[in-house]
């Protein structure tokens, strides 16, 4: 971990590099960030409609407030005060609510969907109910919109019973912290351990992870895949044993696993393919593509061969609103508002979504990205358009573009400092 002294009134570093490390930021700004988070937690506690969200708001608000006090009360130049603040926010916003909900068996429906799919896999060899069974039941939570790897997070509960440690959210959190921290370190981010703790405890990640969390590991693996396409930063010439070019096989592995979890990772595969083709040539692109396809074939292929209709109905038709039961994702965004007007509006929303995808694809042909930052920005834009125009959507999906943006900013600042 990079250790940079945090001095009262010091911005630490040159212009634009002051936040290369959390310890280099003025402490009043760090305290202000925790205070804003505390206000957000309090607002969730007061106004959220779901009891789980209100409990998170109380716990997180207290943790953030104590963290702000710890930063302001800190007088020494050592980073111990900041570490205490990070620990308080991490415990209050993530550890306490997550463990309490896991122990009490309280979660949002998507966690139950994953657990039921894991039980289906154990007893029937597939995580998906057949098209006939879904049509007869007319229950939206019988659908499993996730790809097979997501089911693996439910296997500990399906095999080991209802225990706290078998809750899928515990493993969502473990994968996120490990993969996101590695993505920062690989891309050249400084003080990446503290940044990982800070981001994991932020409301964007902590609330999602405590109550549901299905998108969090996918985001982390997407960041890791993009990081592995970035040549390591150079500080004082080549480092013995350090790779000098992008790592297409490892990137294909990370993005392939993400794509086998949820379809939201598929755009990252396309953009990474174009980036490698332009910057690294055909050989690296082939290695990346074959790795990603092999991962998807191994992890998705068996279920596609056993019950292709069920796979398509659950993971494609249901999220697009093409089944008799509609997805519960219904935030008042343009795509959903159009779909809610009726059949014609739904077709318009799907058409706009397809046009947005074609526009992003055309931009990759006309002006392909030549750096990881430009590729990441293209991914951020594409995902934001997709979530805005999708018929079944929710505000929480913007976790993807926000998380990618934060990862990119921290990594770029660290590389510039190097």
Explain how this protein is built.
The structure is a single chain. 49% of the residues are buried. With 418 residues, this protein is mainly α. Helix content is 67%, strand content 0%. It is built from 19 helices and no strands.
Please identify the structural class as seen in this structure: mainly alpha
Shape: globular
Distance between the termini: 14 Å
**Number of separate helices:** 19
Number of strands: 0
Overall pLDDT: 87
- What letter string, H or E per element, gives the SSE order? HHHHHHHHHHHHHHHHHHH
Multimer state: single chain
> How would you characterize the largest beta sheet?
none
Helix content: 55-70%
Radius of gyration: 22 Å
**Binned strand content:** under 5%
Uncertain parts:
1-15, 235-244
Name its key features.
disordered N terminus; 418 residues; 19 helices; single chain; mainly alpha; 67% helix
Describe the secondary structure blueprint for this structure:
Elements lengths: L26 H21 L3 H22 L7 H25 L4 H16 L6 H7 L10 H5 L2 H6 L7 H20 L4 H9 L2 H9 L4 H12 L20 H12 L6 H14 L2 H25 L1 H10 L16 H6 L3 H24 L5 H18 L9 H19 L1
Helix pairs in contact: 1-2, 2-3, 2-10, 3-9, 3-10, 8-9, 8-11, 8-19, 11-12, 11-19, 12-13, 12-14, 13-14, 13-18, 14-15, 17-18, 18-19
